[in-house]
Specification:
A six-stranded mixed sheet has the order 1-3-4-5-2-6, with helices on both faces. About 45% of the residues lie in helices and about 15% in strands. Helix 1 runs parallel beside helix 3 and helix 5 packs parallel to helix 6. By secondary structure, the chain is an alpha/beta fold. The structure holds adenosine-5'-triphosphate (ATP). The site of adenosine-5'-triphosphate has 20 residues, from helix 3, helix 7 and helix 9. This is Proteasome-activating nucleotidase. Belongs to the AAA ATPase family. GO terms for molecular function: ATP binding; ATP hydrolysis activity. It comes from Methanolobus tindarius DSM 2278.
Amino acid sequence: VRAQVMELINSPGIDYDMIGGLDDVLKEVIESVELPLVEPELFEKIGIEPPTGVLMYGAPGTGKTLIAKAVASRANATFIRMSGSDLVQKFVGEGARLVKDVFQMARDKSPSILFIDEIDAVGGMRTHDGTTGSAEVNRTMLQLLAEMDGFDATRNVKVIAATNRIDLLDPALLRPGRFDRVIEVPLPDEKGRFEIFKIHTRKMNMAEDVDFEKLAKMTNGLSGADIKIITKEAGMFVLRRRGDSIKMQDLLDAYEKVVSEEEEQTSPYS
Ligand code: ATP
């Protein structure tokens, strides 16, 4: 399979303790993805089938990719990532075959987790007039459904898909035996933001005046990815003034910078 369409990591080395504020989400993912890979006999004993695929949805930068990598690490599974938008934009005419190839690879490299990012690009809803984006995208989608349906649930492959736009998703994807577990990945609450600040500053030299509680309070509405950028920016401020530790003021300045840049990006006048 062509390099850019997918990323393959043997065991990504992400630990659950690198994820802040998503305890409930993790519980669900462990139950529906990790357990069936690590202890399939639990399901067999009860006589139930683990979900074939899991769909995670939520705002950008909330940790969906991170979670998929963490489960793969914990289950000692190969992590294979494929981007739905790359499939339909960069590989026009090849989508259906690439989907086939990537599922074959997931079986060859099992136990494995196949992570399909931006699945809405492939499995977007048909438009009002009944037409879809293109026949090509349709073929890619049909191949994806065929692969999901042909999946033997006992095989050591789990599919995790992610989207920022669940409202755009074709309901056919959510039928039983396909993505039959749907999990919301929310923006972090105050406690979650506190944890995420701690996680991303773990290896940084923090001054005593840093008030993580205050930072968590003032960052309502920001994602985990935003918080990571704030901590990195703060580190750069310290570097520029040749300091040796990160002070509260550095984090406040970084916060201002990140928030004003985001506003610029979302402003209709920029
Ligand atoms: P997208 O929908 O844009 O693909 P995503 O939900 O997959 O985003 P990630 O790629 O997992 O988001 O997050 C980007 C980065 O932000 C992560 O590598 C991680 O460093 C940080 N991050 C996001 N959420 C969290 C979190 N809950 N805890 C710790 N770090 C986080």
